[in-house]
């Protein structure tokens, strides 16, 4: 019974943060989509501990678990735009390929950077305990 009451409250909190992102994008005339600003705002609130993970954990877990369903309307809409892929297919494929490779490179570099930092911290802590 408690989950039935907590879930809508958490969902409303996430929607308020999202709507704040849209509001800030409109107010400041930013070229960034409002939902991205909302995610940055959510990240900031979580990092500063203004918002605790427990306060949104149930709703966000549900949304992430069912994320694939949110892509169904987009996929169906894309099926009606075959002419778009015929006309711009090669530039789209090239753009997606280059961005994929750049994403892999940045992700690999980030993991290597942070994994070396973790190994150094573990190595230092081992030496101090001896």
From TrEMBL:
Source species of the chain: Peribacillus muralis
PANTHER family: HOLIN-LIKE PROTEIN CIDA, HOLIN-LIKE PROTEIN CIDA-RELATED
Pfam families: LrgA
Membrane topology: Multi-pass membrane protein
The entry's keywords: Cell membrane, Membrane, Transmembrane, Transmembrane helix
GO cellular component: plasma membrane
Transmembrane annotation, as ranges: 28-46, 67-86, 92-111
Family annotation (InterPro entries): LrgA/CidA (IPR005538)
Coiled coil start-end: none
Localisation per UniProt entry: Cell membrane
Name of the featured protein: Murein hydrolase regulator LrgA
């Amino acid at each position: 019974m408690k989950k039935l009451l907590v879930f809508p409250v958490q969902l409303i909190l996430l929607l308020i943060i999202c709507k704040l992102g849209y509001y800030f994008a409109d107010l400041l005339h930013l070229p960034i989509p409002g939902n991205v600003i909302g995610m940055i705002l959510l990240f900031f609130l979580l990092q500063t501990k203004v918002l605790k993970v427990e306060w949104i954990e149930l709703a966000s877990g549900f949304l992430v678990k069912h994320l694939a369903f949110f892509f169904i309307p987009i996929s169906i809409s894309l099926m009606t735009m075959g002419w778009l892929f015929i006309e711009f297919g090669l530039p789209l494929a090239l753009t997606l390929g280059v961005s994929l490779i750049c994403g892999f490179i940045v992700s690999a570099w980030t993991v290597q950077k942070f994994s070396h930092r973790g190994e150094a911290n573990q190595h230092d802590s081992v030496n101090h305990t001896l």
